[in-house]
């Protein structure tokens, strides 16, 4: 009996220690001459790190890690003034929200509870921001997304609160849709011409499809709307089984243009191939989610934010390749997260300079101060090849003044620019 | 024109295209369903890990093809390359299936029915994350569309053969024929060989079968071996025709295949393939003629109604409960 | 509960040993079979059985409700609230799966339906804002009704076929919530936005008690609400289980045919079990909607169902305390494993616990542990001599921080082989190859017996630690589910009835 108690006691004690250490306590920021946060501040990342979309989250967080490494090492970063005193940064927390909005809520709480974190890169998905945003807003923690493009995130809509501390370094969906009027006239689509819009069942695709549908209708075109769940949320066989009938429908209806916004470049490629084998003679257009070597269908049109796919700073691209592999380096979704982290780093450094290193003792005020600085931060250039700043909060927070660009894919797989909005 | 329910009668060419597309995807579901139904027959176990064996099979095929230079610089002609991919994949997954059975299910032979279910779940998690660790989370592609392209850029597997209103791609023909052949081979095996007879005996009454001198462990291992080999074949075919792979592809397709197995009457081999075909056809026709947005809703509602009318599935026989 | 066997008839033969004259052997050993499991868990079981269960429940809930006073870390309180919701869900699923023996694969529908209905009634979506005391009972009632309706197919279908139909309902529900933003009754009406599509319904009213709104950004409010719910529901469920309905459910679970022949309304009992589970899920759904401040279609999918099943079975289906334990254990484990620094503690603690629990004679245990330490040190020296870059790498502390200093870090680095290039991509493949090799070694260990097993155990555990340190610990999200999978496999192999489940004899 005693032996059993002894064994039980030992096991219980070990478990208790493990749980106590594991759940961790909070470290309160001690008051000192220079606030410790001005010596080393924390950044977070929120996005899908497991599940079907894990490669997106991995890419984005890797770019953020690249930024932090180069920033801490004092390397030259486009847009960061040499005179700026850099507060050392570290990626304190990577929150895996698996593109699930309610999980994003839990990740948000984790970010807020970590008193070293002064800003977060994320969330990657638009619906994640809806789920986790309110908690971050209540804590005044600024979060900058490199990929959430839902139009109404920052401005709000009926039934949706505006997210006041949400920023993004990519334009919202409505900006990309501005390339469509050019395409309509370029393809000489007359009134009554048939167009097919296929969304991917996600907030991204549905948002772009809705915007596109509005523009097509306003030009008097005849729109058929379809919806096929993208491969991230289903399996390739299910996707392909559903996309084949849609492809044959496009042929049977005599559609002149297929507009298919999706986040999965492989899906766009398969769809384009199915259209070709079904005998389609019209044109196909995808959006920025498909910009990737995986989508190389000759003659397809692609819209993209920013001036040029290949404008990414060569030095940093090479550094990313050597650290994380060539495959990831070729997808252009991670790089905006570098810029997002950069905006946060600059904002934190400027805030520390402004208060001469003595931050207020309440973490909420500190974060609020960083957010205010973030709203004013301007970078004259970035690794993306264009400057970055945030618009008036009444508009959607987005930076690039260059808007969106329309490309066409050439037979060697390269993207050649056709048109740019300004 | 709203796309939610745009009912249109297209022409016969369109109709036949959908039939072939539905039969193709249905054949794949059927092949995977065969594994589910055989395992259920001998062990009364719903093997959740089967879908992930299918995924591993697809990846093995990818590695073989890439090693042989596909798609841009293949060192072998098309047919031997594909056969080699099939062979390697089926061999590898057979071993995997047997290992899974030996370590995850055999200790639970006499446990309550839900325990092996949870163990299967554990195996499924494990296989998925192992695939992420070893193969990376990035989706991969067979890229067979670029394999032996013609001037229009269409790979030879995707060339269409047209006879009047009826057109079919070579790869679709390959999938459908392979399924027929494999199913025929399986039926032959189960109904004409001694091991097949042993399998049927074990599925009727395991204890009595062991008392008649049948090595139950060996029979069950062979069941898993065959089932996993079929799933691997389906995986390679998925890669050849649908091209995209990711570590989580087994989950969704496995679920549809599992549905097919139950719809067809769980435990019945012909029923599994019929169930697969039914699901594939309904899926395709719903998207083609009814709504793409609510295709799943319509599919599953129809299946619910179907089950209410045929409670034991297409080919299932009401089971006599012995007291 | 009782390990007392009925006293055998007095005989002159050996009282403790084999079969005895005049005593029914099977009856005599029934206590062993159903009552006591050995070891720590059996001991805990017996302690728990002697304590009035209400005290155990109060102790658990008291600890949970005290968490906001023990720490101000919002994340920990948030995890506690999440766990309470899982406890509710596990208790509800236990009714159908554990008590009535029905495989309910559509359970998450009720959770999601309740959350969505609450969101529709008490948010800015339609502009109607029902008060909490109106919408919560109404939603629960509607969910129970839905439970009855969806379980009607069980009147016609048996066992596995009914399970698959529930799965169909789940798929229908998922498709509807994800695409319900343009529902136009198949062309008969104009498009309505019913469920909000992938962006769901947000801006949901918080729960209000007497005019005081519970702020969802302070997780403790909902922790207390959920705990109160757990308290009331656990008592109700325990009462139902002890009463005639519970006994009828047990009869249904053990042998439906016999129960039917004894005159029990078997079909009605099945409907009732699922409806009661639905009611519990309904309450959880209403808390979910307000706490997460939004309902989304991807929150109520098959993935969630699988997680709840894992919790219920792991804890022991059929035992209310067991499923509560399962819910807490699984959710806390998954959260803890996300951070490398914490996960490392859990891994080594688990290995040590496993060794202590399973390697029985103390001498063998000491030998294994000693061998482990020696093996590591020797391997370190050997590799250092042969491949200079092979040792000296840092250990991972977090996403971007690695360390070579500190007591624990130095200890590990001396014992372990850590190639310098592991975290900079140069040597990371070593972890992958080692992973495959270690899996093979683990499988071989289970096959071997006797001293051979213990000898192989030493390099196997060291290899596992090697893979852990070089590969897994830094990839939290992937590792979590890997370990959960291994845990489920291992647990089912050793304790098929779950940790606190009763050892049952299943009559086939």
List the helices and strands and how they pair.
The complex is a heterotrimer of chains A (422), B (323) and C (508).
Chain A: H1 2-23, H2 36-39, E1 40-47, H3 54-72, E2 88-96, H4 101-113, E3 117-122, H5 126-138, E4 143-145, E5 166-168, H6 173-177, H7 180-186, E6 194-199, H8 203-218, E7 222-227, H9 236-253, E8 257-259, H10 265-278, E9 283-286, E10 301-305, H11 314-324, H12 326-329, H13 335-354, H14 363-376, E11 378-379, E12 388-389, E13 404-409, E14 415-420
Parallel strand pairs in A: 1-2, 1-3, 3-4, 4-5, 6-7, 6-8, 8-9, 9-10
Antiparallel strand pairs in A: 10-13, 11-12, 13-14
Chain B: H1 12-43, H2 50-67, H3 78-105, H4 114-135, E1 140-141, E2 160-163, E3 166-169, H5 170-192, H6 194-204, H7 206-211, H8 216-242, E4 244-245, H9 249-263, H10 269-289, H11 295-309
Antiparallel strand pairs in B: 1-4, 2-3
Helix pairs in contact in B: 1-5, 1-6, 1-8, 1-9, 1-10, 2-3, 2-4, 2-8, 2-9, 3-8, 5-6, 5-8, 6-8, 9-10, 10-11
Chain C: H1 25-28, H2 30-34, H3 39-50, H4 53-70, H5 74-99, H6 107-121, H7 132-150, H8 159-179, E1 201-202, E2 208-209, E3 212-213, H9 219-242, H10 244-254, H11 256-261, H12 266-291, E4 294-295, H13 302-315, H14 320-336, H15 340-358, H16 362-386, E5 395-396, E6 402-403, H17 407-415, H18 429-447, H19 451-472, H20 476-494
Antiparallel strand pairs in C: 1-4, 2-3, 5-6
Helix pairs in contact in C: 4-9, 5-9, 5-12, 5-13, 5-14, 6-7, 6-8, 6-12, 7-12, 9-10, 9-12, 10-12, 13-14, 15-19, 16-19, 18-19
């Amino acid at each position: 009996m005693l032996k059993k108690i002894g064994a039980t006691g030992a096991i219980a004690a070990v478990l208790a220690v493990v749980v106590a250490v594991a759940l961790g306590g909070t470290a309160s920021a001690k008051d000192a001459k220079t606030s410790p946060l001005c010596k080393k501040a924390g950044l977070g990342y929120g996005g899908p790190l497991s599940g079907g979309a894990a490669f997106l989250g991995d890419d984005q967080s890797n770019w953020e890690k690249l930024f932090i490494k180069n920033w801490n090492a004092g390397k030259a970063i486009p847009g960061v003034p040499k005179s700026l005193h850099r507060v050392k940064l570290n990626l304190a927390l990577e929150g895996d929200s698996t593109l699930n909005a309610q999980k994003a809520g839990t990740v948000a709480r984790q970010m807020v509870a970590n008193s070293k974190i002064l800003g977060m890169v994320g969330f990657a998905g638009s619906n994640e921001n809806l789920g986790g945003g309110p908690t971050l807003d209540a804590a005044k923690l600024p979060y900058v997304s490199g990929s959430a493009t839902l139009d109404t995130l920052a401005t709000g809509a009926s039934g949706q609160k505006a997210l006041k501390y949400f920023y993004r370094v990519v334009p919202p969906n409505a900006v990309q849709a501005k390339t469509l009027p050019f395409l309509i006239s370029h393809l000489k689509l007359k009134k009554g011409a048939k167009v097919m819009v296929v969304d991917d069942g996600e907030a991204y695709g549905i948002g772009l499809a809705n915007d596109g549908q509005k523009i097509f209708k306003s030009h008097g075109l005849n729109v058929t709307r379809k919806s096929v769940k993208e491969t991230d949320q289903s399996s390739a066989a299910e996707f392909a089984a559903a996309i084949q009938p849609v492809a044959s429908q496009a042929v049977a209806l005599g559609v002149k243009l297929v507009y298919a916004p999706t986040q999965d470049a492989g899906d766009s490629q398969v769809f384009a191939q199915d259209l070709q084998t079904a005998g389609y003679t019209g044109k196909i257009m995808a959006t920025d989610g498909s910009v990737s070597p995986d989508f190389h269908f000759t003659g397809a049109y692609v819209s993209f934010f920013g001036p040029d796919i290949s404008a990414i700073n060569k030095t940093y691209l090479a550094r990313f390749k050597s650290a994380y592999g060539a495959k990831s380096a070729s997808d252009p979704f991670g790089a905006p997260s570098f810029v997002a982290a950069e905006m946060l780093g600059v904002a934190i450094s400027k805030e520390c300079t402004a208060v001469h290193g003595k931050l207020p003792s309440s973490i909420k005020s500190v974060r609020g101060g960083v957010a205010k600085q973030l709203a004013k931060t301007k970078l004259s250039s970035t690794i993306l090849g264009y400057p970055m700043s945030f618009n008036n909060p009444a508009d959607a927070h987005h930076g690039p003044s260059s808007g969106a660009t329309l490309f066409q894919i050439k037979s060697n797989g390269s993207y050649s620019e056709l048109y740019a909005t300004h | 024109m709203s796309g939610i329910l745009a009912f249109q009668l297209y022409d016969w060419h369109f109709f036949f295209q959908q039939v072939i597309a539905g039969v193709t995807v249905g054949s794949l579901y059927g092949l995977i369903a065969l594994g589910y139904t055989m395992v259920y027959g001998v062990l009364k176990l719903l093997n959740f890990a089967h879908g992930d064996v299918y995924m591993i099979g697809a990846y093995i095929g990818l590695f073989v093809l890439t090693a042989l230079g596909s798609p841009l610089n293949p060192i072998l002609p098309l047919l031997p390359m594909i056969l080699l991919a099939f062979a390697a994949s089926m061999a590898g997954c057979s071993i995997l299936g047997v290992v899974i059975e030996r370590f995850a299910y055999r200790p639970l032979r006499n446990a309550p029915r839900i325990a092996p279910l949870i163990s299967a779940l554990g195996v499924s998690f494990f296989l998925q994350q192992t695939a992420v660790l070893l193969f990376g989370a990035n989706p991969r592609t067979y890229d067979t569309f670029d394999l032996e392209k013609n001037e229009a850029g269409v790979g030879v597997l995707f060339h269409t053969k047209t006879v009047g209103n009826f057109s079919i791609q070579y790869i679709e023909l390959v999938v459908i024929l392979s399924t027929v052949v494999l199913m025929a081979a399986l039926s032959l095996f189960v109904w004409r060989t001694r091991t097949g007879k042993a399998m049927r005996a074990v599925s009727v009454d395991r204890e009595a079968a062991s008392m008649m001198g049948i090595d139950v462990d060996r029979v069950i291992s062979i069941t898993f071996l065959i089932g996993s080999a079929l799933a691997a074949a389906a995986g390679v075919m998925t890669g050849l025709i649908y091209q995209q792979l990711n570590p989580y592809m087994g989950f969704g397709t496995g679920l549809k295949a599992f549905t097919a197995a139950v719809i067809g009457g769980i435990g019945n081999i012909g029923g599994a393939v019929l169930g697969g075909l039914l699901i594939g056809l309904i899926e395709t026709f719903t998207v083609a003629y009814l709504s793409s947005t609510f295709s799943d809703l319509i599919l599953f509602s129809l299946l619910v109604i179907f089950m209410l009318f045929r409670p034991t599935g297409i080919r299932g026989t009401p089971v006599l409960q012995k007291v | 509960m009782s390990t007392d066997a009925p006293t055998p008839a007095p005989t002159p033969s050996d009282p403790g040993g084999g079969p005895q004259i005049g005593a029914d052997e099977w009856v005599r050993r029934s206590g062993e079979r159903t009552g006591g499991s050995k070891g720590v868990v059996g001991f805990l079981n017996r302690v728990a059985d002697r304590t009035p269960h209400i005290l155990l429940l109060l102790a658990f809930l008291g600890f949970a409700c005290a968490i906001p006073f023990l720490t101000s870390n919002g994340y920990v309180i948030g995890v506690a609230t999440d766990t309470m919701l899982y406890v509710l869900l596990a208790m509800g699923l236990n009714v159908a799966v554990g008590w009535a023996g029905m495989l309910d694969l559509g359970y998450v529908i009720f959770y999601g339906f309740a959350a969505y209905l609450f969101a529709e009634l008490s948010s800015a979506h339609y502009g109607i804002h029902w008060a909490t005391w109106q919408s919560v009972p109404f939603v629960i009632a509607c969910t129970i009704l839905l439970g009855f309706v969806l379980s009607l197919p069980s009147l016609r279908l048996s066992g596995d076929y009914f399970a698959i139909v529930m799965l169909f309902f789940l798929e229908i529900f998922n498709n509807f919530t994800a695409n319900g933003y343009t529902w136009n009754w198949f062309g008969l009406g104009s498009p309505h936005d019913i469920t909000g599509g992938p962006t769901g319904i947000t801006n949901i009213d918080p729960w209000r008690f007497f005019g005081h709104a519970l702020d969802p950004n302070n997780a403790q409010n909902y922790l207390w609400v959920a705990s109160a719910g757990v308290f009331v529901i656990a008592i109700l469920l325990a009462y139902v289980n002890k009463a005639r309905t519970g006994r009828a459910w047990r009869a249904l679970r053990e042998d439906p045919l016999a129960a039917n022949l004894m005159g029990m309304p078997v079909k009605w009992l099945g409907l009732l079990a699922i409806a009661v589970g639905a009611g519990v899920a309904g309450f959880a759904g209403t808390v979910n909607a307000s706490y997460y401040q939004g309902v989304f279609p991807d929150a109520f999918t098959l993935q969630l169902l699988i997680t709840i099943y894992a919790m219920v079975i792991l804890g022991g289906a059929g035992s209310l305390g067991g499923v509560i334990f399962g819910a807490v254990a699984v959710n806390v484990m998954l959260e803890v494993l996300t951070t490398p620094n914490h996960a490392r503690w859990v891994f080594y603690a688990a290995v040590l616990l496993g060794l202590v629990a399973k390697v029985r004679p103390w001498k063998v245990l000491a030998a294994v542990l000693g061998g482990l330490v020696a093996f590591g040190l020797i391997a370190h020296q050997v590799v250092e001599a042969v491949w200079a870059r092979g040792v000296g790498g840092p250990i991972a502390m977090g996403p971007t921080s690695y360390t070579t200093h500190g007591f624990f870090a130095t200890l590990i680095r001396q014992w372990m082989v850590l190639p310098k290039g592991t975290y900079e991509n140069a040597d990371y493949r070593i972890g992958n190859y080692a992973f495959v090799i270690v899996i093979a070694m683990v499988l071989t260990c289970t096959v071997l017996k006797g001293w051979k097993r213990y000898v192989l155990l030493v390099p196997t555990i060291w290899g596992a630690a090697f893979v852990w340190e070089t590969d897994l610990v830094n990839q939290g999200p992937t590792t979590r589910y890997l370990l959960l999978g291994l845990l489920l496999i291992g647990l089912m192999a050793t304790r098929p009835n779950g940790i606190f489940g009763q050892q049952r004899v299943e009559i086939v």
